[in-house]
Each structure stands twice: as C-alpha cells, then as structure tokens.
C-alpha cells in the first residue's frame, strides 16, 4: 500500500501534540525507529478513530538528511560569488 500525504504541517513547539489534537488526522505516520508508545499524539489519533502507522525507514530519506541537504545547498549558494 502506498500512502501519499494530503498535507504536511510544520509546527513551532517542542512537540506536535496540540496541532494533532486540533486537526484530528485520520493517519499519523512515523518512522519504524519509534515504538507506538513513543509517538506523540498516537493516543489522540486513535481516540478519534484514526490510525498510527510506523513505516520502514529509507536510507538518506529521513527528515534530518533532507534538512542537511537543503542547508548544504543554501550554504553553497551563499558562499559562491554571483
């Protein structure tokens, strides 16, 4: 089964709990390096009839890797003369 996000949300607090409780998603996806009890908002999603999915990680495709690639590109642009 392939799942494509209908939306991805940024949050500006320590955890996304308040956002998860406010938007009440049908599906909350987290990497399989977490356990169900470590997923912030899992209880809120399940109480509202939603599902929490733990998905296998793909090497180099995590959030941290993506952020590092974006920062690296931005640094190169700033460092190179116009």
Radius of gyration, whole Å:
16 Å
Structural class: alpha+beta
Shape, principal axes of CA atoms: elongated
Span from first to last CA?
Answer: 46 Å
Show unreliable segments. none
Strand content: 5-15%
One letter per element, helices H and strands E, the order comes to HEHEH
Q: What's the arrangement of strands in the largest beta sheet?
A: 1-2
Mean of pLDDT: 84
Chain-wise SSE layout:
Layout: H1 17-23, E1 27-31, H2 42-47, E2 51-55, H3 63-79
Parallel strand pairs: 1-2
Task: Characterize the structure shown.
With 82 residues, the chain is of the alpha+beta class. The protein has one domain. 37% of the residues lie in helices and 12% in strands. The protein contains three helices and two strands, in the order αβαβα. It has a two-stranded parallel sheet with strand order 1-2. The chain is elongated, with a radius of gyration of 16 Å. The mean pLDDT is 84.
């Amino acid at each position: 089964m392939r799942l494509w996000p209908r939306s991805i949300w940024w949050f500006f607090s320590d955890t996304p709990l308040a956002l998860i409780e406010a938007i009440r998603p049908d599906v909350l996806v987290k990497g399989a390096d977490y356990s169900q009890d470590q997923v912030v908002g899992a209880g809120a999603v399940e109480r509202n009839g939603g599902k929490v999915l733990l998905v296998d990680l793909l090497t180099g495709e995590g959030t941290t890797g993506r952020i590092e690639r974006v920062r690296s590109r931005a640094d190169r642009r700033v460092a190179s003369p116009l």
